[in-house]
């Protein structure tokens, strides 16, 4: 005989409740918080390194990976503060994971907190972590069809970074198509184009992060 068990609360409902607690912590600390989501290899950590070189210890990055402390080490070497969450198999960060780290860290002197989610365009997009906004990163090496193939994150993201534009001469990536599809999904999204290698667009990316702080 198969017994059905009804859960009193859904996993998302529990997550959302803790996300609200996180949001209160961020607000009380006066923090601007971004949840950065992309597929693996898009250049999220390189963008965090670039910010670390400019913001120093004022930037705290909570970075998620299946395992290893590699991203934490890179971000700290760039001058920022970093916390590594090893999910040991989970394809996304949860509000509870973030909350557990917040209870162990001092936020004194931090002005910007960025959550670098596990590399995945699907699962992380539907989980609220308490952030102010979501930022999607799309690299030119992935293909310009990603927005229409994975619409969830591009609908939810207030801003999108098209990264690795220095590689455009060498890859088949139609920028106009990608931007057009992003606009169809979210017409008001801020779209930035960057290259961590050449520095192109990095001033605009920095200003976006800083202005997110000022807007609070």
Overview of this protein structure:
The protein is an alpha/beta fold. It has one domain (11-214): Rossmann fold (3-Layer(aba) Sandwich), CATH 3.40.50.300. 38% of the residues lie in helices and 19% in strands. The chain is built from eight helices and seven strands. It has helices spanning 11-29, 44-55, 70-77, 95-102, 146-149, 151-156, 175-185, 202-214, and strands at residues 32-38, 59-65, 81-86, 112-116, 133-139, 159-163, 190-193. Strand 6, helix 7 (175-185) and strand 7 form a beta-alpha-beta unit. Helix 1 packs parallel to helix 4 (95-102). The chain starts with 10 loop residues before the first helix and ends with a helix. The model has no long low-confidence stretch (mean pLDDT 94).
Tally of discrete structural domains? 1
Classified in CATH, the superfamily is P-loop containing nucleotide triphosphate hydrolases
Q: What is the overall pLDDT average?
A: 94
Order of strands in the sheet with most strands = 3-2-4-1-5-6-7
Quick overview:
By secondary structure, the protein is α/β, with parallel strands linked by helices. Helices cover 38% and strands 19% of the residues. It contains 8 helices and 7 strands.
Helix and strand arrangement:
Layout: H1 11-29, E1 32-38, H2 44-55, E2 59-65, H3 70-77, E3 81-86, H4 95-102, E4 112-116, E5 133-139, H5 146-149, H6 151-156, E6 159-163, H7 175-185, E7 190-193, H8 202-214
Parallel strand pairs: 1-4, 1-5, 2-3, 2-4, 5-6, 6-7
Helix pairs in contact: 1-4, 2-3
């Amino acid at each position: 005989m198969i017994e059905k068990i009804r859960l009193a609360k859904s996993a998302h409902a529990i997550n959302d409740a803790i996300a609200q607690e996180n949001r209160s912590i961020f607000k009380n600390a006066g923090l601007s918080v971004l949840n950065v989501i992309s597929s693996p290899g898009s250049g999220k950590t390189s963008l965090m390194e670039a910010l670390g070189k400019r913001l120093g210890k004022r930037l705290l990055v909570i970075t998620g990976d299946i395992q290893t402390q590699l991203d934490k080490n890179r971000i700290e070497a760039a001058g920022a503060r970093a916390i590594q969450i090893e999910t040991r198999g989970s394809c996304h960060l949860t509000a509870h994971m973030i909350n557990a780290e917040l209870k162990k860290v001092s936020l004194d002197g931090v002005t910007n907190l960025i959550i670098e989610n596990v590399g995945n365009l699907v699962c992380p997009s539907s989980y609220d972590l308490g952030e102010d906004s979501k930022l999607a990163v799309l690299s030119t090496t992935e293909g310009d069809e990603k927005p229409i193939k994975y619409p969830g994150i591009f609908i939810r993201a207030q801003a999108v970074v098209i990264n690795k534009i220095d590689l455009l001469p060498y890859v088949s990536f139609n920028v106009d198509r990608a931007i057009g599809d992003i606009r169809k999904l979210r017409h008001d999204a801020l779209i930035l184009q960057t290259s961590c290698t050449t520095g192109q667009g990095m001033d605009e990316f920095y200003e976006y992060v800083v202005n997110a702080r000022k807007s609070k």
